[in-house]
Fold:
Amino acid sequence: MTIVTVRKPSDYILSDWSGGKTQQLYLYPETGDYGKRQFSYRLSTATVAIRQTTFTSLEGYHRLIMTLDKPITLSDIDDNRETTVVPFQPYAFEGNRRIISRGTCQDMNLIFDDHYQGQLQAIWPETKDNPKRADVEMIYALTDLTIYWNNHKKLSLAENHLVVMEMDSSIADAQIHPSQHQENHRPLAVWAGLWKK
Structure:
């Protein structure tokens, strides 16, 4: 059985964090509580509105971040290591790391506990390397798009909307097309995949 859930911007939960605003796109379980750290995984977007800020500590979780517009520099205080993260390239780190972020951007965040492995990937026009099948797959539309499955199912997804697919469905079996002409220099969507350990 396939479970497909579509979320629209009015469903998202908006809140403040030390560096700007964050939108919770999806939390599992849905009865969980991000503030109390009672959840298995969470997908969100955030604005980093100030030039230097420290990321929220998330002990016991793994994190993937992807900037959607501008490069940022992340400094790991514990390792004295600095990394420049360019748009649409994911960066992984442990939730308990003390990370200072320099630069402003909009980003995508995938946070998950030890029961999962996760991946973030930008989906570009005419992409030939769709991600492999995952137990849970989420597609966040960066433009209006249409998803076609091999069995001729079709789903239209508006910009800033999210689809969550569980079990039988998979982007590996699908094609994603923009609803209108899309320049090749910008991705159509961001894909998040989670595998149960």
Residues 47 and 106 are 4 Å apart (CA to CA). The chain has a mean pLDDT of 89. The longest strand covers residues 20-28. The radius of gyration is 16 Å.
